[in-house]
Amino acid sequence: MRFVIAFIGLAFLAACGGDPALRFAVPQAPPGDRIAISARSVEVREVTLPTYASSEEIFFESSTGSISSDPSLLWADDPRRAMTLSLSRLIGEVTGAQTASEPWPFEAFAEARVEVRVDEMIAGANGLFRLSGQYFVASDSSRVRERSGTFSLAAPYNAEQGIPSIAAARAAVLRDLARLIASEGL
């Protein structure tokens, strides 16, 4: 009985201390018109992000170019996981292909594998959310050519509207990346 009372007391103290952090989800951007691709199935590997962008904290660029965050403002999900799952979903919606993030959950292997390496993902001081890096499309299928390309995408956000505006801009650049990979890579 004492254990139960102690446990309830600890739970109450933890609840009272509370986490002052606010978590923000990234909305889903509409995928836009369909893009025909040669692959019937696409695996999306885990998106690699710079150290600062892989953190739950939301980072901002200052007018001097420095990058900082506020520990009380967090993404709702792990950025690598969220970016990978969203990119997989968007590529599927844009192309109509069977898509999944790694590990590939189906018996037959995917006809194409997409890997994305991000070198910049930041809410810029100029009111643009920027996403840049390189993508790779690998395939064992004769239907799909192996390709790679670079990307440098941006979407505006309104600093006065706060983090929800930044989250919407992040969703928009990810959608644009999915469309770019579908049209030029797949």
Question: How would the blueprint of this fold be written?
Answer:
Blueprint: H1 2-17, E1 22-24, E2 41-44, E3 57-61, E4 67-75, H2 79-95, E5 98-101, E6 112-123, E7 128-138, E8 147-156, H3 163-185
Parallel strand pairs: 1-4, 2-5, 2-6
Antiparallel strand pairs: 3-4, 6-7, 7-8
Helix pairs in contact: 2-3
CATH architectural designation: 3-Layer(aba) Sandwich
- Give the number of DSSP strands: 8
| Elements, N to C (H/E) | HEEEEHEEEEH
Identify the CATH class: Alpha Beta
Widest beta sheet: strand line-up? 5-2-6-7-8
End-to-end separation? 62 Å
- Oligomer description: single chain
Number of H/I helices: 3
CATH topology: Rossmann fold
The overall pLDDT, averaged over residues, is 89
Radius of gyration: 20 Å
Question: Helices and strands: which structural class?
Answer: alpha/beta
Query: Which superfamily, in CATH terms, is the homologous superfamily?
Result: ABC-type transport auxiliary lipoprotein component
Q: Helical amount among residues, as a percent range?
A: 25-40%
Instruction: Summarize the main sheet.
Output: 5 strands, mixed
Residue share in β-strands: 25-35%
What form results from the Cα inertia axes?
A: elongated
Point out poorly predicted stretches: 1-17
**Overall domain count:** 1
